[in-house]
Structure formats: C-alpha cells, structure tokens
Design brief:
Helix content is 69%, strand content 0%. By secondary structure, it is mainly α. It has one domain. The radius of gyration is 19 Å and the shape is elongated. Keywords: Membrane, Transmembrane, Transmembrane helix. It holds the Pfam family DUF2165. InterPro entries: DUF2165_transmembrane (IPR018681).
Length: 174
C-alpha cells in the first residue's frame, strides 16, 4: 500500500485538506452569525437599506427598509452558509474515506465538495458581490462594504473547486 503522500495521492490529499479548510471556515462563519446575531444583522440591514451609500435618488428606490425583510434575508444567508458548511463537512468525511479506502474512489467526495463550494460561490458571488455590491450599491459604503471579504471567499471556494476538478489519474474509480 502506498503512503498518504505518495505521488499517486497528492491531489486527493490536497483536496481533502482544502475542502476541510473551507468547511471549518464556513462552519465558523455560520456559528459566528448565530452566536453574534446582532453584529452582522446590522451589516445586512445597512446594506439593504442603502443608508450609507451616496443616497442617489436614481438608486434609492432599490432600498429595502422593512426590518422583517432585512432579517429574513439575514436568516436566509445563515441557513445557506450552514447547509454549505454541512455539505463540505460531509465532503471532507468522504475525502478521508477515499484516502483510507482507495478502492472506494473519490467521486462522492468530489460531488459533495462541488455542491458546497458552488453554494459558497453563489452566496459570495451572486449574493454579496452582484446583489449586495451592485444592486444595493454596497461598493459606495465606507462603513458597510463587504466586497473585499466576499471576493476573498469567492476566490477560495473557486480555487478549491478547480483543484477538485483537475483531470488526473489520481481520481481513479469515480
């Protein structure tokens, strides 16, 4: 049997480690949003209300100022993050199973990772960058601007997604 870091297993080991990293990160973000609900709720409220943007009349019609709708959007973000974290934690377990039992293959781990990583890319790319950044003009705010963090999270998820989809003989028995 080949060792964990044999040349035939370096890509699966990297995929396992990076999937686990994103899983733990996402789980901690979701946990933080639940245990410190008020802090990021204020962020979502200000972004949706557009109250720290340039207050341009041509854009302000987009603002959502209803607290119930703002809070529903924030809860939806937390639920989405939690489901993505669970998918990635499950994927990490599947990666580990593939490393311990190579005959099991990596197909299930790749599929589960893809689900969680695409969920994160949708959240941070579509949700934060496109909708928050452009539709709600978050880029105009000096105080409530999460575009840099969203870009970082989108890039991390995208990098891991590309890694797990690299063509390689190391993915035997999909």
């Amino acid at each position: 049997m080949h060792g964990l870091m044999s040349s035939e297993r370096t890509l699966p080991v990297a995929a396992t480690a990076l999937t686990a990293t994103v899983a733990v990160y996402t789980a901690l973000v979701a946990f933080g949003n639940v245990t410190d609900f008020g802090t990021n709720r204020e962020f979502v409220r200000h972004v949706l209300a557009m109250d720290t943007t340039f207050l341009d009349d041509d854009l302000m019609w987009r603002a959502v100022t209803d607290r119930t709708l703002q809070d529903a959007a924030y809860v939806a973000v937390i639920v989405w993050e939690t489901v993505a974290a669970l998918a990635l934690l499950w994927a990490t377990a599947l990666w580990l199973r593939g490393l311990v039992r190579p005959w099991a293959g990596y197909g299930p781990a790749r599929r589960a990772s893809t689900v969680g990583l695409v969920m994160l890319m949708l959240l941070f790319g579509l949700g934060f960058m496109a909708i928050g950044g452009e539709w709600f003009a978050m880029w105009q705010s000096t105080k409530w601007n999460g575009l840099q963090a969203a870009g970082r999270d989108f890039t991390l998820a995208g990098f891991v997604l590309v890694l797990i989809h690299l063509p390689s003989s190391q993915w035997r028995r999909e």
